[in-house]
Amino acid sequence: MRTRNKIMSLAVASACCWIAMPAYAQQAAAGTPATPGDQTPPNADAKAEAVPAQTVVTVSGSRIASRGFTQPTPTTVLNADDLAKNAQPNIFNTIAELPALQGSTGRTTSTNSTSSGIQGLSSLSLRGLGPIRTLTLLDGQRVVGANVTGVTDVSQFPQLLVKRVDVVTGGASASYGSDAIGGVVNFVTDKKFEGFKANVEGGQTTYHDDRNGTVQAAWGKGFMDDRLHVEVSGEFGREKGIDSPGFGEVGPNGRSWYKNTAYQIRPLAQTNDGKPQYTVIDHAQQYQYAKYGLITNGPLQGTAFGPGGAPYQFNYGGGGKPTGTGAVTGCVNPFCVGGDLSGSVGAGTNLAMDLKRQVAYTRVGFDINPDHEIYLTTNFGKVESVFSPNPGAAKNANLTIQCDNPFLPASIVAACAANKITSFQYGTANAEFPHNINVHPTRQMERVVLGAEGRFQLAGKEWSYDAYAEYGQNKTDIIVHDISLNARYNAAIDAVRGPNGNIVCRNPVAAASGCVPLNIIGDVPADPAAMAYIEPGMGPQQHTKQTQQVASFNLHGEPFASWAGPIAVATGAEYRREHYSVTGDPYGNGVSAGSPNTPDYPADPLLNTAVGNNWYAGNYHNASGTYDVKEAYVELNVPMLKSATFGEANLNVADRRTRYSTSGSVESWKIGGSWKTPVDGLSFRAVTSKDVRAPNLSELYAAAVVVNNVVSYQGNTITVQQRTVGNTKLRPEIARNTVFGAVLNQPKWLPGFSASVDYFDIKVDGVISTLSAQQEVDLCVAGNQEICSAMVLNSANTTNNYVTVQAFNLASLRNKGYDVEAAYRMNLKDFGLPGRLTFRALATRTISFLTDPGVVGTIPSEGAGNNLGGTPKWKGLASQAWDTDKFGLMLTERWISKGVYSNEFIECQTNCPVSTTIHPTIFNNQMKGAFYVDLGGSYKVNAKTTAYFKIDNIGNVDPVAAPQANLSFAINPTLYDVLGRVYRAGVRYSF
């Protein structure tokens, strides 16, 4: 009977862990977790269920360090064991799996981008609010940004020495300063590590690609009777990525799931027939170009070119027939369905970047006496990435080929004459280019921190302090290879026979400056000399240097006491200076080409030396800027109740005053409390806060780029100079963050079980966003005087008309939902089995995520459940672990709920309303979710050596197609696993 009760207890507890989530919840935080909502991270000793009673622990949701303090802001903790069990080559991957982390960037995101600047950047995002609204710290300290937006790169952190990660899922600006709107992720290192440990790991996907290897080692030792403590660590990791398969509807290395999925979009004016405007199609065939060239207009429309330049009739698919006007019957611009898919470029994007990490870290601490330590830390991190955003360099029916081009077959020349035309429109994927565009971002961080921490007596009370000064710099180089200059390409393809019968460039200026004709008619080898002309050896380059200087002092103690307990105080001040400078190459930036300082970029009369923008992509511009921040804060924890009858309660309040050199002063605050009820194990918590995010360096000082544009103003279409530039008048974003919930922590009737439910509501006003030139004009006409000051539209001299395109504080965000976390631990010795079982489940339900652009003619858009974005309605994670002294096994489930392509779509098949730009109609608006299962295990070979393995995505679940309006990536790596099944194995050694 007793055994049966134990079995029932185990079954009930297991069910409880899952009941805390929806029936199919799955995206589990790896490993053995901390108690949900518990502010004391789990002890490294697996046999201990909590930190010893006399230990004081500071978790990054609060500056208060006090025994017995339960802060009201929910915090999820992953300890070193959790991180080790997930066996990822980059700790970033483990953190990003947590349900509250939504919209993070990594090496599988932005692989289709040449110019974004975030390629290869491992940055964390809470609540889908973006990395710029998540504060990422190292030992509670700021880290210099790895991008002009100021976000950090977790790949540059010393990962082997991380003993826990605190994820604060609520606003924390009052305690920690700007950017903590979504919350805080704090990486805490082991500052007193003794001994030596190492980790060697390798793996690959089931497709035999993305081969990866990691080598990590750390050493620590005390000297001078342990007054001097030294620790060092070094790491090298390489994930080789998944290369582009090239052109056509084929995935890399046998992946069969890529189907050229896209939106087929009918013209808005034709949607009065009761049929939907949007249809999601597979096998989308772009009819504005072909792999080796296609005539796209006129009497020869539909003529494509193959081997040796031989013409043939292009297969449009779906019975499509060219009309001679550029349209194709049976198709909807720009796609047909099926046909000749050989020129498709969507599958040509790398699924994952080739990423290399090199990290070194040292900490030297010296105890002046038992109460005071000074320390010095140094951190070096270098992260290199390589990827190809797309094959070729597609030209969508925007080329003009003259009929006297000597590269044309005689039959086409004759057809031109017969049809009395002298030229035709042409599109090509430029598949004859010998190399794909390839981008090489490199980020190198150097960071030094000098600090002190300790304690002292004042007025009979003990106070503790910590202070540090930091200098950090991050140098980022983005270099693009095998990419063409537009003007040179256009000149090279416009060929003609010279007086002596040789083929030359038609433009005499181009010919005089070195132009070499390029044959783009059919599958013919590209002339190396022509390729060297259009793709000079030096491609687009961007060199950025960011520096950060910080001085911080924090003081905390318990100077007073009430009848309910000691009143804890934390206070401090901080100064921070942020600076960046970025330099683009002359062809992209538009200045200094041909100067003695730019010998690799000679002057060229074809190129625009005034504004640049000469490359096919990757046009980088010069910029620089600096701002500084001065701030001070105070935080109080006041016990309000301590009663055997009514329980215990405390009030936690904080206030921070911040002055930015660019935007003046702003206040952030929080007020919250927790109540430990007399009901066994049950407590409640609530907190509301005002949080801020200051405009970053890029938003303030973005490089000036000038191009010509047209806008509609007062019924007229006028030409304006569009000046894109940063806005130094930006104000901080202001957020109101509210969280309340309940915690059940190890009740006597079910020891080892804990659960929490927390509701959150985040509203951000004055969100910084950039508008188009026409949107700014419309807002000015509607009466927005701030935006009117950014333009001149009625100058008597029309050449003086301009619109300054820059960021403004116009938009707003609101994100509402709730988090659920549950865990159960039990010792199996009562069942006659070795070890212990740990069940854990976490989930985030996003109820609503509204974005209001604040722009005339738009409405707020709903992002919750938009699975083309980063915030599904449900994101879940669960794990079940069995650990003994000899071995361990863990099963993990990750889950994303099904959603839609857009919440603004109206789904209908017949009798559809007339489609609008705000609410388009679509045939099917359903996007599948995903369920992944991972398996890991470890075996203790001896006292010093542990072998382990991990298999991610055991079922090799394919990513869900993510249609776009063009043939781009067509998957969403922000939400879905794009790698497939991954095998990893390794060995850990320690003594």
From TrEMBL:
Its main location: membrane. Keywords: Cell outer membrane, Membrane, Receptor, Signal, TonB box, Transmembrane, Transmembrane beta strand, Transport. Residues 71-184 form the TonB-dependent receptor plug domain. Residues 1-25 form the signal peptide. PROSITE patterns: TONB_DEPENDENT_REC_3. Pfam families: Plug, TonB_dep_Rec_b-barrel. Gene3D superfamilies: TonB-dependent receptor, beta-barrel domain, TonB-dependent receptor, plug domain. Residues 460-954 form the TonB-dependent receptor-like beta-barrel domain. The keyword Disulfide bond does not apply. It is a multi-pass membrane protein. The keyword Signal applies. It is found in: Cell outer membrane. Belongs to the TonB-dependent receptor family. This is Outer membrane receptor protein involved in Fe transport. It comes from Duganella violaceipulchra. The lineage of its organism: Bacteria, Pseudomonadati, Pseudomonadota, Betaproteobacteria, Burkholderiales.
